[in-house]
Amino acid sequence: MMKRLICILLALALGAGLAATADETVTEIYDMDGLLAMAKAPNGRYRLMNDIDMGGVDWTPIAFSGELDGDGHGLYNLTVASAGAEIRLTRDGNMKKYETEFAGLFSTLENATVRNLRLVGADVRVENDAHCFAAILAGYVDRSEIREVSVSGRVRMNSYGVMVGVGGLAGFGCGAFDRCDAKVELVFEDRNFNSKCEEFMGGVLACGIGSVTACVVDIDGYDSCHGYVHNGGLVGMYYHCGTKYASGSVSNNIRDGRIRFFEDNKDRRAYCKAVIGESLSDPKRTKNNFDTFVRDEVKTYDTVLLPEQCDTPEYVETVVAPSGGHWGYTRHECSVCGYHWTDSYTAP
Ligand SMILES: [Zn+2]
Q1: Which of 37, 102, 228, 335 has the most C-beta neighbours closer than 10 Å?
Q2: Per-domain residue ranges of the chain
């Protein structure tokens, strides 16, 4: 009887396995057209087959709910200048709802998995009238897994909205971030002087909940805010924001860098810390987070905080060729203040 039962179970398991295999078609991506096709079948499974130069195109953020395996390859020179079409509800610390738009490679990641992907030299810059979150990988993340994804580049928001934020990997939402890497310059400029904004900044996630494990973050943040600041080296504000997603472990991460900010607000809170700026939900565990993070608060509010310090900067450009498996790039350095950035990457 037992043997028979085992046989039936085995047959069922094998049958299920076969069915799953038949459905598991992986679409190979070789170029930007292949990436754009993901938007038409967002539940599919995809694999990058080589590095792809995203330069010279203003990328429209796409919605994705499938599986993307970067297979260690890079998307380089991604330029995002506007939010995607998707609107989702976000909630602030008081559970107030906002219809919000999102910018990044992806506007939204929902029930998605992204792994083994590199985004090299990305430039995400939006000027938004609406509520908006911007980040290099995705503006919005819902119940998604981000594993071994590395991002480098700059995110800048000139904001006229209220519920707003910039992140290295992701803007708003819930998910798991494991063994990710973010080397990012994040700049937020609040241009809304009529209502106090809820502003969020984080090297991994600007606002939301989930697990952040074994990530390496190097953040250079600038935040000029006339509302409420929530800034963290890893997560700006850790909160369920109305989702059912459970809190996770925020452990074994390394953070470097600083956030320079001001909070021009009589009701000043000025949340800015190395791991989590403000915790409204408790992570399951926070341990073994190492950092040299600097909280750099400025108490004057008349000058917008920017990485470039000069009124008349003078840039010297140096082109570095790719070699020995390393990416090539162009380095721009201001000979007056020393501010520098890199762009125009070339594949190894
Ligand atoms: Zn300068």
Answers
A1: 102
A2: 31-307, 310-348
Which amino acid is present at 329? Y
Cα(303) to ligand 1 centroid in Å equals 15
Query: 223: CA distance to ligand 1 center in Å?
Result: 18
Q: Which of 220, 159, 150, 149 is nearest to 184 (CA)?
A: 220
Distance 339 CA to ligand 1 centre (A): 6
CA distance 91 to 168: 20
Query: Can you tell me the distance from the alpha carbon of 152 to that of 136, in angstroms, rounded to the nearest whole number?
Result: 8
CA distance 179 to 212: 8
Question: How far does residue 55's CA lie from ligand 1's centre (Å)?
Answer: 25
pLDDT in tens, the chain (348 residues): 445 544 445 444 444 444 444 457 999 999 999 999 999 999 999 999 999 999 999 999 999 999 999 999 999 999 999 999 999 999 999 999 999 999 999 999 999 999 999 999 999 999 999 999 999 999 999 999 999 999 999 999 999 999 999 999 999 999 999 999 999 999 999 999 999 999 999 999 999 999 999 999 999 999 999 999 999 999 999 999 999 999 999 999 998 999 999 999 999 999 999 999 999 999 999 999 998 999 999 999 999 999 998 999 999 999 999 999 899 999 999 999 999 999 999 998
Buried b (16+ CB within 10 A) or exposed e, 197-207: bbbbbbbbbbb
Class of domain 31-307: mainly beta
Tell me, in angstroms, the distance from the centre of ligand 1 to residue 316's CA.
Answer: 11
| Distance from Cα 222 to the centre of ligand 1, integer Å | 15
Q: Report CA(213)–ligand 1 centroid distance (Å).
A: 36
Ligand 1 centroid–CA 283 distance in Å is: 40
On whether the CB atoms of residues 184 and 154 are closer than 8 A, the answer is yes
Position 266, amino acid: K
Integer angstrom CA distances of residue 66 from 145, 177, 201: 11, 16, 27
Yes or no: say if 187 and 222 are a contact pair by the CB < 8 Å rule: yes
